[in-house]
Specification:
The chain is α/β, with parallel strands linked by helices and 249 residues long. It is built from 8 helices and 8 strands, in the order βαβαβαβααβαβααββ. An 8-stranded mixed sheet has the order 1-2-3-4-5-6-7-8.
């Protein structure tokens, strides 16, 4: 079982597709530390196999008690995962602290192959390069990394160029979300599975180049989702299908 807890609405980004309509400060009715711990106690009561709990938002790092919540969940035997926004609060030291507290996997969002696309989507310049840097921190510390990409009719053409980025970052899972126009995303134009597949006809040619690379130790999986989770910043989706991508060899 996967439990996705949006721990706060607070976030410094202004993403065009945000389902939650993020805000500068947390909602006054968000769970307190003790209420959050009680929630994790309830989740742990489901028993074995212990659920996966993903802390997301908003930006989970906007909660000063994030370390305490992760540590409490991990102490209960829960598989704790973190889906932060890429802001100045996401530092290498912060990644290490959350890993030490018990977060054994993290996910980041990357919505384009170039800075202009991703930064435009996220509403803050410099986030593209900061995301690549954060991804390298996560993998350097041997933390499982998932990358989430929101697909729209304007960004789908960049998917072929993004695949080698995923391979270079050594991600465990690349999740492609089809945009659900809710919240701030109401003004965005979603793509469709048919349009996306048509727009990616250049992939077979690119795959031939990747096959010439030396074999990697493990593959990167790609998942497609068109469910309600598509509006979230970085959650683990329920997928329609999953297939291993070519990794050389």
């Amino acid at each position: 079982m996967i439990v996705i807890w949006e721990v706060t609405r607070a976030c410094a980004l202004v993403c065009r597709h945000c389902r939650a309509d993020s805000q500068p400060v947390g909602h006054p009715d968000q769970l307190t530390t003790e209420e959050g711990k009680a929630l994790l106690d309830d989740v742990a009561a489901f028993g074995r196999p212990q659920p996966i709990v993903i802390l997301t938002g908003g930006d989970a790092f906007e909660r000063p008690d994030l370390h305490e919540l992760i540590s409490h969940g991990a102490g209960l035997g829960l598989h704790m995962a973190l889906s932060p926004s890429v802001t100045p609060k996401l530092t290498h030291d912060a990644v290490r602290q959350m890993h030490a507290a018990g977060a054994n996997s993290m996910s980041l969002s990357l919505d384009g192959a170039v800075a202009a696309t991703h930064d435009g989507f996220r509403g803050v310049p410099g986030v593209f390069e900061a995301t690549l840097e954060a991804a390298r921190w996560i993998r350097a510390d041997q933390i499982r990394l998932q990358v989430n990409t929101t697909v729209t009719r304007h960004t789908v053409v960049e998917l072929p160029a993004m695949l080698p980025i995923m391979l270079d970052l050594d991600v465990s899972l690349w999740s492609l979300f089809f945009l659900v126009p809710t919240g701030a995303a109401s003004s965005c134009r979603p793509s469709t599975l048919r349009r996306s597949r048509t727009s990616c006809t250049g992939w077979p040619t690119s795959r031939a180049r990747w096959r010439s690379r030396p074999p990697r130790r493990r593959s990167t999986a790609v998942s497609w989702s068109s469910g309600p989770a598509a509006g979230r910043r970085g959650s683990t989706p329920t997928t329609r299908s999953t297939a291993a991508t070519p990794t050389g060899g």
